[in-house]
């Protein structure tokens, strides 16, 4: 049985950890990898430096946890949005639009900073590759499911993978400027193309 | 008339500048933005630190020139490859494959490091946005030309833009792992989709 005196302390500790992880994503998205230190994240989270270092003794520990956290949040976001999709006409456009949203938010922006940093930092690279493969597989499976298509049909796998890559490219295009207007036109047109491609 | 005694010195100076710019792209692609300093680039280029600082007094000067240089090289690459495309069957796949190559090389990798750095560094961001708009327009125009389609046809603009975004996404997917096999499957399938979409 849980110790009733320890439970509130554990809750507080979990809440602190959560605040630090949220702050680390915000910090990555806004000031980038080099400027995101445990001290900066602690200040942003309103947590004492000591408490932050209790959770994350080193910067590597913080990023390791942040990558896991971002993976979970991105998958949860995909699941939530997938459940709210309309049926019938407009469904495909809603799906492609949802994907574009997932890949243009602050979470993707934070992930971009981490990916680029990881490309020249070995332990981080290995960890991200493992988790990205997981996110990629889950996103791919979710996309097949909401589009109601099967990979057994030749070409479907590559069609759907290409859509995910397009969404990633749209995310990148949104990094330095607000690309919303151009993006909406592409989402509309490629939804039509996708419907055609999956029907044939 | 050119001074015959000055000409060789000017040539040497131009060659040194060129070596420094090539080395800065290599350095960005291999060790990233934070580690790419004028001193590191000079050492990589085999140029004295003094000579490097004569060309690029500050790191900002180096990146400003590197961004211009990368823009020129990327456009020249697109033009060269566009001129070597086959005609008839297989042309569209050769085009999409060429695009995927342009967006997965060391030049794109170097550009990714710069873009992410620029997202949190104002003067660099403005400069890159201006030059990327130029590269984007030229790449878009070249793609319309080699695909032999016109933007006057409704939907063509967005179809072609989406393919460029897909290529950018493929470049990103190749940053942390060798994504060649998956990419070839997507290029093949998306070439078919593109042919269908542009024909209808």
Automatic annotation (TrEMBL), chains A, B:
<feature type="domain" description="HTH tetR-type">
    <location>
        <begin position="14"/>
        <end position="74"/>
    </location>
</feature>
<feature type="DNA-binding region" description="H-T-H motif">
    <location>
        <begin position="37"/>
        <end position="56"/>
    </location>
</feature>
<dbReference type="Pfam" id="PF00440">
    <property type="entry name" value="TetR_N"/>
</dbReference>
<protein>
    <submittedName>
        <fullName>AcrR family transcriptional regulator</fullName>
    </submittedName>
</protein>
<keyword id="KW-0238">DNA-binding</keyword>
<dbReference type="GO" id="GO:0000976">
    <property type="term" value="F:transcription cis-regulatory region binding"/>
</dbReference>
<dbReference type="InterPro" id="IPR001647">
    <property type="entry name" value="HTH_TetR"/>
</dbReference>
<dbReference type="GO" id="GO:0003700">
    <property type="term" value="F:DNA-binding transcription factor activity"/>
</dbReference>
<dbReference type="InterPro" id="IPR050109">
    <property type="entry name" value="HTH-type_TetR-like_transc_reg"/>
</dbReference>
<dbReference type="InterPro" id="IPR009057">
    <property type="entry name" value="Homeodomain-like_sf"/>
</dbReference>
